[in-house]
């Protein structure tokens, strides 16, 4: 689908990149200077729903910039206007509910780098879209870099064809240890009670099973989650047959509280994990947040992360089916 919409003007942002003929992110601005108010934006999104969604899939990321979006309530109106069903976040990141469908992004220390990932990649159902809103841009750092997932697959297949083939055929197995209560001093400090929305161990087990997880209870009140087998790569409908690097081996391999192996227990070679991390970084796309930015990500096509930053930084998130 060609870009064609009278209600938005195509802009540019520092750091955007042309990937396989598409600009990431596609920057959309008000068509006229006097149309940057929230009500005009909501009307334009309502009138162009199908086109807008196609732009997200076509370009993998769309950045609304130059609109007067002030807070969580206004961000929520944008999310609800798009009409996509909500999906509750499940994962290790500590987050706080702000308003209706809006949550804080990972509340781990700003000094830490949050590694590239597809949101909820390990679960049976993950968001199709991740929407981020910048209420307070950081004075330095704090970018949300994105990576075209298919580019990682292409390069890994080129450099490690046999290992990639083995991992694809066997699948992957992950483990992750969670505390009982939240620890906001860690970017992976979300407690299992918050993650599963219950303090009842039996109910937690039931909800974990529905997500495709096994649990092992630990003496300290925490638990170990076991997930597998999981795919290394996936191909999704409507995305040019691209083979996405739909896993989190780099983020979980060899960590204190997590592990990633092949599903039969075979270790993933350290040099493969290290080189994969380098490739992901080499393919990353960075841009600086501006106040009022709203970024729509195709979660099936892009990995995303967070650069360390100086405070203050306030980025809010909504996840959609």
Automatic annotation (TrEMBL):
Claim: Oxidoreductase is one of the keywords in the record: yes
Record has Oxidoreductase as a keyword: yes
SUPFAM superfamilies recorded: Clavaminate synthase-like (SSF51197)
Domain TauD/TfdA-like residue range list: 34-316
Membrane-spanning parts: none
Keywords linked to the UniProt accession: Oxidoreductase
InterPro entries membership: AlphaKG_dependent_hydroxylases, TauD-like_sf, TauD/TfdA-like
Protein name, entry field: TauD/TfdA-like domain-containing protein
Organism annotation: Stylosanthes scabra
The organism's taxonomic lineage, starting at the top: Eukaryota, Viridiplantae, Streptophyta, Embryophyta, Tracheophyta
């Amino acid at each position: 689908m060609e870009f064609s919409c009278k209600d938005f003007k195509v802009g540019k942002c520092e750091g955007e990149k042309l990937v396989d003929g598409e600009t990431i992110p596609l920057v959309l601005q008000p068509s006229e200077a006097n149309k940057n108010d929230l009500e005009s934006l909501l009307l334009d999104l309502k009138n162009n729903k199908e086109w807008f969604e196609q732009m997200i899939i076509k370009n993998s990321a769309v950045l609304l910039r130059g609109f007067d979006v002030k807070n969580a309530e206004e961000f929520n109106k944008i999310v609800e206007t798009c009409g996509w069903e909500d999906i509750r976040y499940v994962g290790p990141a500590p987050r706080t509910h702000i308003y209706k469908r809006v949550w804080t992004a990972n509340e781990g220390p700003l000094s830490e780098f949050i590694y590239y990932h597809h949101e909820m990649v390990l679960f049976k159902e993950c968001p199709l879209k991740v929407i981020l809103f910048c209420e307070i841009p950081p004075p330095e750092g704090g970018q949300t870099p994105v990576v075209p997932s298919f580019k990682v697959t292409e390069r890994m297949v080129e450099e490690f064809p046999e290992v990639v083939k083995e991992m694809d055929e066997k699948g992957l197995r992950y483990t992750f240890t969670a505390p009982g209560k939240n620890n906001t001093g860690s970017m992976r400090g979300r407690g299992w009670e918050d993650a599963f929305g219950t303090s009842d161990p039996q109910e937690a087990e039931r909800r974990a099973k529905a997500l495709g997880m096994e649990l092992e209870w630990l003496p300290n009140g925490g638990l170990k989650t076991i997930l597998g087998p999981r795919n290394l790569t996936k191909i999704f409908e409507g995305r040019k047959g691209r083979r996405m690097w739909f896993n989190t081996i780099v983020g979980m391999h060899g960590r204190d509280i997590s592990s990633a192996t092949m599903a039969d227990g075979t270790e993933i070679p350290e040099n493969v994990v290290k080189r994969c991390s380098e490739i992901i970084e080499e393919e990353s796309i960075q841009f600086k947040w501006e106040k009022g930015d709203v970024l729509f990500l195709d979660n099936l096509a892009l990995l995303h992360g967070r650069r360390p930053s100086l405070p203050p930084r306030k980025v809010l998130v909504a996840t959609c089916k």
